[in-house]
Amino acid sequence: MWGMEIGDVLMNIAGHATLTKELHRISSVFAGLFDDSQDELIINRTSTLSDTIMGVSIGYFLTDLAMIFYNYPALGGMEYVIHHGLSMSAIIQSLLSGQAHIYILMVLFTESTTPFVNLRWYLDVAGLKNSKLYIYNGVALFLGWLVSEYTFTGLSYYLAASGLTNVKLVFPLGFYSLLTVPPALAMMNVFWFSKIARGMVKTLSKARHRQ
């Protein structure tokens, strides 16, 4: 009995150590986006690449908002407007202040599944809901959402918690935005992920019955 409990504890410790190592490895990749010659703390580091990614992201969110309003509410309701508004607010603050670029980039990578969401709508409107492309897109959306949302959202929280001293150096509005915006987006994403999962199961069940 004691041997089993000790074994479980050791496995949990080993699992935690592996997870921490992987999180550190991924965070190192993001840190590599910035110039090491800068003397500032990572919270204050910027680069041409990070500025470009954020600028393109603002353009994307504005374009997506225009599509949402034009097709309202077919592409999404007010929750999508709030989501995009919060995202653009955080990006603009980071760009103007030159702070927290690494944290914003972490959260931005969770939006990499949005093209699959839009493609799903286009296929539905085009009457291709029973096509193989619709099924493949749904599976890709589910897997991509699962990986990007939980990996990068968890990583952003890990970095913020491990570097809390640095986070406190962010200007006041940016600091409170870092504490509130990511959790708000995460709650929305959990709700949408549950809908995606149910939709994928429903689509796969229908495809199986047609066979």
UniProtKB/TrEMBL annotation:
It holds the Pfam family TRAM_LAG1_CLN8. The keyword Transmembrane helix applies. InterPro entries: TLC-dom (IPR006634), TLCD (IPR050846). The chain crosses the membrane at residues 52-70, 90-112, 133-153, 173-193. It is found in: Membrane. Residues 10-205 form the TLC domain. Keywords: Membrane, Transmembrane, Transmembrane helix. It is a multi-pass membrane protein. PROSITE patterns: TLC. Its main location: membrane. The keyword Membrane applies. PANTHER family: CT120 PROTEIN, TOPOISOMERASE I DAMAGE AFFECTED PROTEIN 4. This is TLC domain-containing protein. It comes from Rehmannia glutinosa (Chinese foxglove).
